[in-house]
Amino acid sequence: MANYTAADIKALRERTGAGMMDVKKALDEANGDAEKAIEIIRIKGLKGATKREGRSTAEGLVAAKIVDGNVGVMVEVNCETDFVAKSDKFIALANKVLEVAVASAAADPESLLAADVEGKSLADYVTEEGAVLGEKVVVRRLARLEGATVDAYLHKTSKDLPAQVGVLMAVDGTGEAAQTVAHDVAVHTAAMAPTYLSREEVPTETVENERRIADETARAEGKPEAALTKIVEGRLTGFFKEIVLTDQSFAKDAKKSVGKVLDEAGVKATAFARFRVGS
After folding, report:
1. Cβ count within 10 A of residue 55
2. Are residues 74 and 43 in the same domain?
3. Are 238 and 255 within one domain?
4. What is the pTM of this model?
5. C-alpha pair distances (Å), 30 with each of 24, 37, 130, 134
6. pLDDT along the chain (279 residues), means of 10
7. Which range of residues forms the domain containing residue 22?
8. In this structure, what CATH number is given to the domain that contains residue 230?
9. Does residue 169 share a domain with residue 110?
10. Could you tell me if 172 and 161 are in contact, meaning their C-beta atoms sit under 8 angstroms apart?
């Protein structure tokens, strides 16, 4: 007869994030000893790490932190299932990754994974914690922005899951107005997913290719030669409005561009980063 209860199973699942059958087997092997069962789950999980290497990690979360109002750090940590993504154990692991990212001032995921955590590399720490969870866990992306004012916005696409979209927004001004507009533009960015901050950032070859497509399309539609230049430039402007942050119509007031909103606040956006889990 098993010397543990359904409550013991529930408690151990909450502590480890492991599946029900894995927890039950571990408790059976440990004769009901919860601490021993955790050790068993960890050991078996590490043995299975190699088998998990090829698995897809399309779930997870985005976490961010602002330091002293002018530095923003954001990480995306992935796992295999939404069940694990919303577990306390995984959320704690992602927060630990964020904590290390802030403390180490790492500029890329490789440097972050090499950072020290309790006498081991973060990469090893994540592998061990993933072993307990029973899933492949990946630190996929890291962003670090500095500016006069930096704001972070995290968005839940499902109320049952942690944040799936995250944005860091840096502007060149300080004070309440700068903070407010940085936040408003961060929220806009989460929703509208711009690719570039300004037109100047769009690669020349991308612009020229779009111009060529617009020209060929207009000619195929039989537009008059005399009107081609104006038509092409108009379509190119529309293209910029889709992918360039400052050209986009502001989500809270479509009559204004994001650039106009920033101008009215007396600031310029200097950088942004946007993560969406799995994309």
Report:
1. 12
2. no
3. no
4. 0.79
5. 10, 5, 21, 18
6. 78 73 83 84 57 65 97 96 92 97 96 94 92 88 98 96 97 96 98 97 96 92 92 95 97 96 98 95
7. 6-47
8. 1.10.286.20
9. yes
10. no
